[in-house]
Amino acid sequence: MSTRSLRLRLLLSAAFAVLIAMLIAWFVMTWLFARHIERRVAVELENEAIILLSDLRLSPNQEPQVDETPANPRFNLPSSGLYWQVSNSKGMQRSRSLWDESLPLPTPAPPLSNWRTRTIDGPFGQRLFLLERSILLSADTPPILLQLAQDKAQQYVARKEFGHDLGLFLAILGAVLVAAAALQVSVGLKPLGRLRHELLRLQNHPASRLTNSHPQEIAPLIDAINRLADAREADLTRAKRRAADLAHSLKTPLAALEAQSNRARAAGASEAADGIEHAISAMTMAVNAELSRLRVDSVRNNLYASASSPQQAAEQIVGVIEHTAIGESLVFDIDIPTSLSVPVPLDDLKELLGALMENAARFARRRVCMQGQMTADGNVELLIEDDGKGVDAGTLHTLQHRGKLDEAGPGHHGLGLIIARELVDATNGQMQLTHSALGGLKIVLTWPMAARSI
Predict the structure, then answer these.
(1) Parallel/antiparallel/unpaired status of strands 331-335 and 367-374
(2) What pLDDT score does 52 carry?
(3) What is the pLDDT of residue 297?
(4) What is the C-alpha separation between 404 and 393, in angstroms, rounded?
(5) CA-CA 20 to 30 A from 135: which of 128, 293, 399, 432?
(6) Contact, 387 vs 439, CB < 8 A?
(7) d(CA 447, CA 424)
(8) Strands 92-94 and 430-435, how do they pair?
(9) Closest CA to 422 of 282, 288, 289
(10) Phi and psi at residue 117, in whole multiples of 5°?
(11) Helix 153-204 vs helix 6-54: angle between axes, to the nearest 10 degrees?
């Protein structure tokens, strides 16, 4: 898929957006899960703290004492990860799990009314979640600091396991969302496919226009294309009208010049008559070429998805040429399968083959051959050959590379070829000129069968 593809850009954008969203979701949800665990641990430590408070008292020396410690066995196991400690300015008492270690005292002291939580570096190299609060047993006694702590290692393990499971889930969810985005892109771009088909129809049928059944978002584009098509059609119509008027208007002056040439020749001015006739011939060729180009424009602007039989067209053309002065002494060898078809309307195909076969008959000695076949790559190929003298390398190069009419060679050898090439181009085909094994000129016409499907 090309990097200029709109579909690829949308899919990559959607995949990138989904990836970013999944990463953000993973970080946020794992953070929320960690917060949830901390709140649950804080509740559990508050429950243990209530047990401590129920048995908390001051000794005669104002030292805090706990008569009945919580029953949780982890408080009695050294370095268990669960600790408690009560302290004031007079003394301290702590759980056996702290052994000879102690919890760090806060600065400043926590408030009397609420529990406070924080994370600290505790004894035994452990990272602890600490719950603490200042307690007043009576108004005339010093405040007591109550602290309970739990090792965060279990929280880290739970968070890691949750992050792993969440990552798998989000990966599957991301794949589903990317697939949904691909489906959405396909559905969203489907109107552009219909627009492409309408543009192909507009290309081959200039009189047609894009419909108004497209989404509202591309309606301005549809209107702009239709206005451009209207302007193009109007310009082409005016240009063809001016060219036709010019070509037809020249016919009368040419006829008058021909009459003047005849008079000059009758008066004995043969040299002047030859010059006039040469000029008339060149001008007539230009006029005929211009009228032929109008025909080419008509073909180009009226292409339809139709096919015709080259065998039928060739037989009709040969039937006409055989009754002319140049064709009555020639042998026409037609070898085209009846099943072969060319993606060109019959009238246009006859116009094209007629120009080529007439040109071949004009310069052939005894034989004109025409063959048709389907190539290995699915193209239709027509070959026209004659056994004439052919053309020299310079003229062949000129004709092969779209030479001008005045470079067509003596006897207007290339006039029909140049017009035929324009007809082939107008029907989306290709024409190649080479030397024939028969001695004359070989013309190869090729059309891709799929090129005309709309």
Answers:
(1) parallel
(2) 87
(3) 60
(4) 16
(5) 128
(6) yes
(7) 9
(8) unpaired
(9) 289
(10) -120, 150
(11) 160
The residue ranges of the chain whose pLDDT is under 70 are 1-3, 203-207, 240, 247, 251, 284-306, 398-416, 449-454
Three-state secondary structure along the chain?
Answer: CCCCCHHHHHHHHHHHHHHHHHHHHHHHHHHHHHHHHHHHHHHHHHHHHHHHHHCEEECCCCCEEECCCCCCHHHHCCCCCEEEEEECCCCEEECHHHCCCCCCCCCCCCCCCCCEEEEEECHHHCEEEEEEEEECCCCCCCCEEEEEEEECHHHHHHHHHHHHHHHHHHHHHHHHHHHHHHHHHHHHHHHHHHHHHHHHHHHHCCCCCCCCCCCHHHHHHHHHHHHHHHHHHHHHHHHHHHHHHHHHHHHHHHHHHHHHHHHHHHCCCHHHHHHHHHHHHHHHHHHHHHHHHHHHHHHHCCCCCCCECHHHHHHHHHHHHCCCCCCCCCEEEEECCCCCCECCCHHHHHHHHHHHHHHHHHHCCCEEEEEEEECCCCEEEEEEEECCCCCCHHHHHHHHCCCCHHHCCHHHCCHHHHHHHHHHHHCCCEEEEEECCCCCEEEEEEEEHHHHCC
Q: Which of 417, 441, 446 is nearest to 430 (CA)?
A: 446
- Give pLDDT, residue 412: 44
Please state, in angstroms and rounded to a whole number, the distance separating the CA atoms of residues 39 and 42. 5
State the Cα–Cα distance between residues 40 and 75, nearest whole angstrom. Answer: 19
- Cα 101 to Cα 98: distance, rounded to the nearest angstrom: 5
Q: What's the topology of domain 310-452?
A: Heat Shock Protein 90 (3.30.565)
Q: Which of 300, 250, 313 is nearest to 279 (CA)?
A: 250
pLDDT score at 86: 92
> For residue 240, what are the CA distances in angstroms to 170, 232, 311?
65, 12, 32
**Tell me, what's the pLDDT at 54?**
84
Task: Show Cβ contacts of residue 337 under 8 Å, excluding neighbours closer than 6 positions.
Answer: 311, 372, 373
| Burial zone of 418 (CB within 10 Å; 0-12 exposed, 13-18 middle, 19+ buried) | buried
Interatomic CA distance for residues 121 and 128, integer angstroms: 6
Residue 303: CB atoms within 10 A of its CB come to 20
Q: Measured in Å, how far apart are the chain's first and last C-alpha atoms?
A: 23
Name the CA dihedral angle for 421, 424, 429, 433, rounded to a multiple of 10 degrees. Answer: -30
- Calpha distance 26→274 (Å, rounded): 95
pLDDT score recorded for residue 261? 77
Among 381, 346, 347, 384, smallest CA distance to 362 is for: 384
**Residue 59: both structure tokens together:** 């000794």
